[in-house]
Write a structure and sequence with these properties.
The chain has 253 residues and is of the alpha/beta class. Helix content is 22%, strand content 21%. Strand 1, helix 1 and strand 2 form a beta-alpha-beta unit.
């Protein structure tokens, strides 16, 4: 029986690039990561339920994390910024991962954890300095993103993620654990391929994405359509509630 104190998340497979069986096989590892690794660090837990694209009814009272091919498919199927009920919605775009030879489970883990840590995409940490006032978005997987920084649970690759200490500027280097894999050495530190979203209140330039490797990741710093980073830049009254019709959720299984 589900613990009602836990957040309830539906992991919906609407992608044509990954089968229901693949998603169901990966789900126990994703659940283990949340319960064993994430919950002790962040003080919140969740129960994940698999939902197939062939279902006749979506779980309307749960948060959604949806596997999709790409942003165009998301729009075509009616997945927008929030669920049909106006609850948190995360999107995992499978096709780009497949094209790059990456494991979709790392991205799914990334989106699941960031949706839990900052469901309304409005949390941030303030850092006051002599020449700047910075707000760091609560993106807990982006600073250590990429498969090179991931780890394995029962042969399933999942994303590394930062601990609350990563957002605490008083911490000194190597004074505590800053991420699950214990490789980040200081607050706001980025691993290779890592990113963070920052708002400098003095420049007036809006949200900017900082990268560990500036030249290599100029393109990656752009928010992808439909991503959480893009939604952070959109005025809240412009967010759109999803209008997903069942069972026309996806293409072939």
């Amino acid at each position: 029986m589900a613990n009602m104190a836990n957040i309830q998340i539906a992991l919906i497979n609407a992608s044509t690039q990954v089968t229901d069986q693949e998603v169901q096989s990966a789900l126990p590892a994703l659940q283990t990561q949340i319960r064993r690794d994430f919950a002790p660090a962040w003080g919140m837990d969740a129960d994940i339920e698999f939902v197939s694209a062939t279902t006749q009814q979506l779980p309307m009272q749960k948060w959604w994390v949806v596997l999709l091919d790409n942003p165009d498919q998301a729009v075509a199927l009616g997945y927008h910024d929030l669920t049909n009920q106006g609850l948190p919605l995360g999107k995992v775009f499978v096709s780009p991962d497949k094209q790059m030879g990456y494991q979709w489970t790392v991205t799914a883990s990334h989106i699941l954890l960031e949706t839990l840590a900052d469901p309304d995409i409005n949390l941030m940490a303030s850092v006051q300095r002599r020449d700047s006032s910075l707000l760091y978005a609560y993106e807990i997987c982006s600073p250590c993103q990429s498969e090179a920084n991931s780890y394995t649970i029962d042969d399933v690759r999942v994303s590394d993620f930062v601990y609350p200490a990563w957002f605490e500027s008083f911490r000194t280097p190597n004074s505590t654990q800053f991420d699950q894999c214990d490789v980040i050495e200081k607050p706001f530190g980025l691993l290779p391929a890592g990113l963070c979203t920052v708002l400098d209140l003095q420049t007036g330039l809006g949200w900017q994405t900082m990268a560990a490797e500036e030249e290599l990741h100029k393109y990656d710093r752009r928010p992808r359509p439909g991503s959480r980073r893009e939604r952070r830049r959109i005025l809240r009254d412009q967010w759109v509630v999803s209008k997903v019709k069942v069972p026309a959720l996806a293409g072939a299984r």
